[in-house]
Amino acid sequence: MVPTxxxxxxxxxxxxxxxxxxxxVSRSTQTPGDDVDPARxxxxxxDLGPLPVAAPTELADVLAPGQPTVVFFAxxxxxxxxxxxxxxxxxxxxxxxxATGADACRPGVGxxxxxxxxxxxxxxxxxxxxxxxxxxxxxxxSAGQIRYRTLDPSVVGLLDEVATxxxxx
Length: 169
What we know:
The protein is α/β, with parallel strands linked by helices. It has one domain (38-167): Glutaredoxin, CATH 3.40.30.10. The chain has helices spanning 5-28, 78-84, 117-123, 159-167; strands at 53-54, 69-73, 94-98, 109-112, 136-140, 145-151. Strands 1-6-5-2-3-4 form a six-stranded mixed beta sheet, sandwiched between helices. Helix 2 (78-84) links the parallel strand 2 (69-73) and strand 3 (94-98).
């Protein structure tokens, strides 16, 4: 039995509507803090660039020599990030928060009081979709090599992923 023209048009229209709905939903999940290139946004592949690379020497004073360091770019989320760090499971790792007003962090967390734009560029953090100050993190190993860097606008709620990445060093 051969399908009628009307049945084929109905199936085609249903497919177009379904694909359009998928497109609308995928576009609605993008935020201004996301990476310009979705392939570089977490979760997913780690980094398309060559890693490891040396951490910037001009910011060596915020890194802990001989110890892995996680440098968080927190932006306006600094207070929330600092509140979550004690329970993040990142013991034995040097922690640095790059943000203005991040002085509320617990003792032992370094604070680089900056808007973050220059530091993000120095660490090679990708650009945001809206061109704003990046929110994410960089993991530097004990030899001073950048092992992972990503934008992560929701890093505050996903610190267990940061701990997993650090454990993989």
